Amino acid sequence: MFWELIATVFAGIGGAGIALFIRTLSKKKAPKWLVPTFAGLAMLGFQVQGEYSWYDHQKSMLPTGLVVVKTVQEEAPWRPWSYIYPQTMRFIAADVTNSAQNKIDPDLVLVDLYFFERRHLAKRVPQIVDCVKDARTDFTESFNPSHLQDSHWYPLNENDPLLTAVCQKAG
C-alpha cells in the first residue's frame, strides 16, 4: 500500500509535468488550472488502472495447481465507472494439486481454499468437499472425523467450480 501511494504521487507529478510542458509550448497561454487538473486526472487514472489490473496480476502470480473457483465483482457509488464495468475485488482459489482424498471415504477431499481480497493479505481456509453429496464443510484443528455427519455442510451446485476442480482430480 505504501508503494502504491508513492506511485500515485509520482503519477500526479508526471501529469503536472505534462501540463507544464503544454503551458510552455503554448507560451503560457494555456490556463494555469491545467496543472492541478492533469495531476489529479493522472492520479485518478493510475488508481483506476490499479484497481482493474489487480485481479489479473494476482491471478498471474498464483503457483501452478491453484485454481480460481470464484470471483466477486463489486460496484460502488464512489466509483461510478464500476457500474459500467464492475471491478473484481475478491477471489477464491483452491489448491487442487495438494488436495488429499480421504483413504477411508474416497468421496471426501481435503482442500485448502485461499481467499484473496484487494489490499488485504490472503487467508487460507481448509475445507472438506464431499464429491457425491455436492457439499463442503470447514476443517478446523478440533475437527473430529467420527462426527462428520454432525458438521455443518454447505450445499454446492453440481456445476460449482470448486466441485469441478477438486472432484475431477480426486476421481
Explain the overall architecture:
Helix 1 runs antiparallel to helix 2. The mean pLDDT is 90. By secondary structure, the protein is of the alpha+beta class. It is elongated.
Major pleated sheet: 7 strands, antiparallel
Task: Please report the total strand number as a whole number.
Answer: 7
Helix fraction bin: 25-40%
Mean pLDDT: 90
Low-confidence stretches: none
| Oligomeric nature of the chains | single chain
Strand composition percent:
25-35%
SSE pattern, N- to C-terminal: HHEEEEEEEH
Shape: elongated
* Rg measurement, Å: 24 Å
Helix/strand-derived category reads: alpha+beta
- Please report the distance between the alpha carbons of the first and last residues: 42 Å
Tally of contiguous helical segments: 3
Characteristics:
36% helix; 171 residues; elongated; alpha+beta; seven-stranded antiparallel beta sheet; single chain
Task: Indicate the topology.
Blueprint lengths: L1 H24 L8 H27 L5 E9 L12 E9 L4 E2 L6 E10 L5 E8 L4 E4 L15 E2 L5 H10 L1
Antiparallel strand pairs: 1-2, 2-4, 3-4, 4-5, 5-6, 6-7
Helix pairs in contact: 1-2
